[in-house]
Amino acid sequence: MQGSQGSNEHETVGAYALGILDDAEATAFEAHLATCEWCAQQLDELAGMEPMLAALADLPGTGTPAIAESLAAKPSPRLVERLVDDVGDRRALKRRRSFYMIAAAAALIIAGPLAVIAANGGDSSGQKGSVAVSTAKTTFDTLSDKVTATDASTKVTATVAMSKKDWGTLGVVELKNVKGPLKCSLIAVGKNGERETMSSWSVPAWGYGIANATKAEAKNPLYAQGGAAFTPNEIDHFEVMTFDGKKLVAVDA
User: Fold this and answer.
1) Per-domain residue ranges for the chain?
2) Strands, sheet with 247-252, edge to edge from the N-terminal-most edge strand
3) Rounded to whole angstroms, how far apart are CA atoms 178 and 202?
């Protein structure tokens, strides 16, 4: 409602949508509708009801006098009021769902879902990344729930640390023995078969986590932090995939 003034006009939207106002009442409501966004929204929700009732009246077997009279009868004020209330409830539910989605996205942003850094704190431009290090590697070190696997073919090793959050799962992957140049993603695969990309990153030509590397930066693992809407017990396994579809390693959850 938008205040006591015009409250009767607001309550009329259901009757107008059902086509049960007389000419004078309909004209008065249309004047109100031109300046009332709330009623316009409610009318949009209710507008399809009158044609549905009319179509029902034309169905075979509904032409008996009793049914015709029932379909033609005007709804009671209580029914009209309940219809409007139902519309309001549906709109409130949509707003709540939107709020939860925004809250989950905000939580992922705060958690640093795209924080990707080598352990030495440097990026390809030689700049230090201490903030990203504290976000990804420090988070990895503080999480106790970790799973590890090494692919027999690629020899890439991945350790995924995870933590349950209200919005799903926070995850940090430690990647070793991976050579570039590559573009990769950490993907959570649900027990229902759905796939969610948790984070993406690039691997330079020298690679990361290579024990016998001649380049100092290449000896350090890479850490990538991200999030998934799955809860931990909904995840079957994790995959590190290249952008061209090659699986580097899979890690059971």
Assistant:
1) 7-109, 112-252
2) 195-203, 182-190, 235-242, 247-252
3) 11
